[in-house]
């Protein structure tokens, strides 16, 4: 089984889906001739031609609007938003059109569309190339929100997303594009949208994370293991609909919960997990539910020391875990 | 002048109670009649309302302690008020001189006070509170290893997992002369042992036979700790089987007339706010049989067979996986079918809501268990001591039966009567059970 990077797995998923189904096509900025600014689509233009790998104008509104229209005609568009930071012009199309289509047509029309967008900081990208936008979309019923944390899941989940009859927001941790490597089988397999995964079983503290933060959490858990603290790590993988059973089962076991994301703290996705735990596992809690998140400032700073101050990392996660374990 | 909070007498025959939980801590304010603490007697939990409004000045009896009715549990008053001296937790209420005089000279064995028993427990997390409540753990005995000495979930689990020394000792009957009866009290009730819900003086009961060796735990096995109710059920079941020679006899009854009667009257009962269940018919028939054969409404004593004048029917009520409880319908012979049905509805509902009064699970003279509700055809129930018999009712099934050489389909039920063979012989028991059967078959 070949070992590859997360972005190679994303490309492999798209390649296999395009080969499988002629209705699958890609639209986005620089996805064609250039092969994508992160090289996610490199080679696909040559293989499938300009009609299936479409270079769009710099207008996210139209990328998603075109995707919705094509999807209603029975196509399976994969829209690439070059950076998640650029998604806001398309917000109306996503939230008011794509998300509501199935509901408002009573199931007669659906939008089988995937919107891929690299998200997250820690790459020196500054305010407009570092944002985490997942919480805007987990608030919207009608969208599915998926964030893989490793190459295997990236391929399996993206293939599931392409085949899903309704719109899927597929956010990729760009810091991990080439940093996170793993074994990925060639050929057909999918990872279902929905279930979370316990990636490290432990007895003392549960951590809920996704994307890059999940990768860091595993590193922090290793540090804590050396100190005698047994950390359970849960990779949420799908943020909406979220896998409550796995979350609650983990909290019922450990009695302590930490949620990690790099998006801002207030109104961030961790609040939803914390509330779910408080509502359904209150009597199993042995400590206050804790969130480790980006601070409430308007953007991820460009200055490196300030970027480090902003971003959760394995050391910060380990420190939060130590506090919870000692509580 | 501060007001006393005393351990109430929660039933005619209930002389002591265990404080299971204080709902207010010292220094907190409370309104008159607001729930102040929870008390457990036998199987029943009761909330005790505050006798006055004010501040909870002093708790004299910590949670987990069993005291006699009349004992002062706490003081309520205004902050800064001086408490009367010399009225410690063991001083009985003035209105209870008889109870005080009758108290045994030696107080019942209590747990040796652990070091730091009165220490501030610190923050109690939700899971620790829940575990302590479910497992009956006195948190003052648990060593805290969390931040600032806080008691963590792990501390409680470790406390529950570590068997108290008394239980780890060889069983008394295996080492005659060195058993529990011969060991100093302080060893039997060593510090650190979790409290039982209501410590009682050692009983002079016949030594039970040796238990089979405990199975060795295999990897992946899970130990479910025993709660108070489970322990109580287990002790009663073993005691009953050791006490009475159990014999079970089974008959069947044709419920054609009962089902017709129920169909005809269900709506009318519902208008009176009563759900007419089959249980009302079973109990009605049981009462009729107890009147016809009073010997069954009795208890064995060494002096003779004590035949009870009152007919009080215990009604085994399942609490799901939590166990079962037997509320008692007092003077069931004085109730009409409507009265029985209403009483059954009320007791069953409150049993499931854990809202029974302590007296309502006492004084039964005969018991019924409706195992048919879970599909059982017939069973051999265990006698609810110190009664003589228990009637088991199976599932109602339509079956082909032979009536006057014709095959007919009738709603049938198996009735099983387990009786104490010391009191009853087979013929008398069968006479009794056939009275139940005929009452049901000839229902009018």
From TrEMBL, chain B:
Residues 83-117, 193-222 are annotated as: Disordered. The keyword Iron-sulfur does not apply. One of its GO terms (molecular function) is lipoic acid binding. The keyword Transmembrane does not apply. Residues 123-160 form the Peripheral subunit-binding (PSBD) domain. Keywords: Acyltransferase, Lipoyl, Transferase. Its EC number is 2.3.1.-. It comes from the Bacteria. Gene3D superfamilies: 2.40.50.100, Chloramphenicol acetyltransferase-like domain, E3-binding domain. Residues 196-216 have a biased composition (Pro residues). One of its GO terms (cellular component) is cytoplasm. Residues 92-104 have a biased composition (Low complexity). Its cofactor is (R)-lipoate. PROSITE patterns: BIOTINYL_LIPOYL, LIPOYL, PSBD. It is an enzyme of class 2 (transferase). Residues 2-77 form the Lipoyl-binding domain. Belongs to the 2-oxoacid dehydrogenase family. This is Dihydrolipoamide acetyltransferase component of pyruvate dehydrogenase complex. It comes from Levilinea saccharolytica.
């Amino acid at each position: 089984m070949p070992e590859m990077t997360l972005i190679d797995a994303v490309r492999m998923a798209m390649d296999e889906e395009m080969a499988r189904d002629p209705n699958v096509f890609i639209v986005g900025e620089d996805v064609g001739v250039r092969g994508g600014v992160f090289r996610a689509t490199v080679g696909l233009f040559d293989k499938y031609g300009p009609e299936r790998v479409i270079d769009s104008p710099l207008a996210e509104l139209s990328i998603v609007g075109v995707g919705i229209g094509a999807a209603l005609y029975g196509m399976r568009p994969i829209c690439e938003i070059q950076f998640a930071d650029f998604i806001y012009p398309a917000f109306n199309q996503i939230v008011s059109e794509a998300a509501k289509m199935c509901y408002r047509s009573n199931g007669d029309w659906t939008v089988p569309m995937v919107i891929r967008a690299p998200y997250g900081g820690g790459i020196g990208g500054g305010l407009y190339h570092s944002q985490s936008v997942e919480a805007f979309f987990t608030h919207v019923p009608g969208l599915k929100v998926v964030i893989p944390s490793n190459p295997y899941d990236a391929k399996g989940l993206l293939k599931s997303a392409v085949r899903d009859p309704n719109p899927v927001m597929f956010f990729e941790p760009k810091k991990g594009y080439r940093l996170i490597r793993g074994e990925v089988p060639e050929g057909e397999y999918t990872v279902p949208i929905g279930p979370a995964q316990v990636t490290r079983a432990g007895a003392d503290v549960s951590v809920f994370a996704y994307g890059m933060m999940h990768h860091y959490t595993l590193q922090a858990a290793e540090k804590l293991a050396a100190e005698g603290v047994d950390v359970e790590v849960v990779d949420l993988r799908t943020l909406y609909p979220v896998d409550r059973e796995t979350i609650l089962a983990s909290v019922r076991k450990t009695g302590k919960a930490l949620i990690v994301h790099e998006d801002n703290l207030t109104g961030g996705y961790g609040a939803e997990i914390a509330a779910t735990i408080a509502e359904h596992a209150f009597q199993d809690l042995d400590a206050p539910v804790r969130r480790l998140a980006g601070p409430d400032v308007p953007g991820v700073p460009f200055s490196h020391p300030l970027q480090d101050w902003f971003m959760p990392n394995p050391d910060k996660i380990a420190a939060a875990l130590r506090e919870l374990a000692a509580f | 002048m501060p007001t006393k909070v005393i351990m109430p007498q929660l039933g005619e025959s209930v002389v002591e109670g265990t404080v299971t939980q204080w709902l207010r801590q010292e220094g907190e304010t409370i309104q008159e009649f607001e729930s102040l603490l929870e008390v457990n007697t036998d199987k029943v939990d009761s909330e005790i309302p505050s006798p006055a409004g004010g501040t909870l000045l002093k708790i004299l009896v910590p949670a987990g302690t069993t005291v006699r009715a009349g004992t002062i549990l706490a003081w309520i008053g205004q902050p800064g008020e001086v408490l009367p001296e010399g009225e410690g937790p063991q001083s009985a209420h003035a209105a209870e001189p008889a109870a005080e005089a009758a108290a045994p000279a030696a107080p019942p064995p209590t747990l040796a006070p652990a070091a730091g028993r009165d220490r501030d427990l610190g923050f109690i997390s939700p899971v620790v509170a829940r575990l302590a409540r479910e497992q009956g753990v006195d948190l003052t005995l648990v060593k805290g290893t969390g931040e600032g000495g806080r008691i963590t979930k792990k501390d409680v689990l470790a406390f529950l997992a570590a068997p108290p020394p008394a239980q780890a000792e060889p069983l008394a009957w295996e080492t005659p002369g060195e058993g529990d009866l011969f060991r100093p009290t302080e060893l039997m009730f060593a510090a650190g042992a979790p409290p039982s819900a209501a410590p009682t003086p050692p009983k002079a009961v016949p030594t039970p036979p040796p238990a089979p060796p405990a199975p060795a735990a295999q990897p992946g096995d899970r130990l479910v700790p025993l709660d108070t109710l489970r322990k109580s059920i287990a002790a009663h079941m073993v005691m009953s089987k050791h006490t009475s020679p159990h014999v079970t006899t089974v008959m069947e009854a044709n419920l054609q007339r009962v089902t017709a009667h129920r169909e005809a009257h269900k709506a009318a009962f519902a208008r009176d706010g009563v759900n007419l269940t089959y249980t009302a018919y079973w109990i009605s028939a049981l009462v009729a049989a107890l009147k016809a054969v009073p010997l069954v409404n009795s208890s064995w004593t060494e002096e003779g067979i004590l035949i009870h004048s009152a007919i009080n029917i215990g009604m085994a009520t399942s609490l799901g996986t939590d166990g079962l409880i037997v509320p008692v319908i007092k003077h069931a012979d004085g109730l009409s079918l409507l009265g029985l049905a209403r009483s059954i509805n009320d007791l069953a509902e409150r049993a499931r809501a854990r809202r029974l009064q302590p007296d309502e699970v006492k004084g039964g003279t005969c018991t019924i268990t409706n195992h048919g509700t879970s599909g059982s055809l017939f069973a051999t129930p265990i006698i609810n001591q110190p009664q003589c018999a228990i009637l088991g009712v199976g599932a109602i099934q339509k079956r082909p039966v032979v009536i006057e050489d014709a095959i007919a389909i009738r709603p049938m039920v198996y009735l099983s009567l387990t009786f104490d063979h010391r009191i009853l012989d087979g013929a008398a028991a069968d006479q009794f059970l056939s009275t139940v059967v005929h009452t049901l078959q000839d229902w009018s």
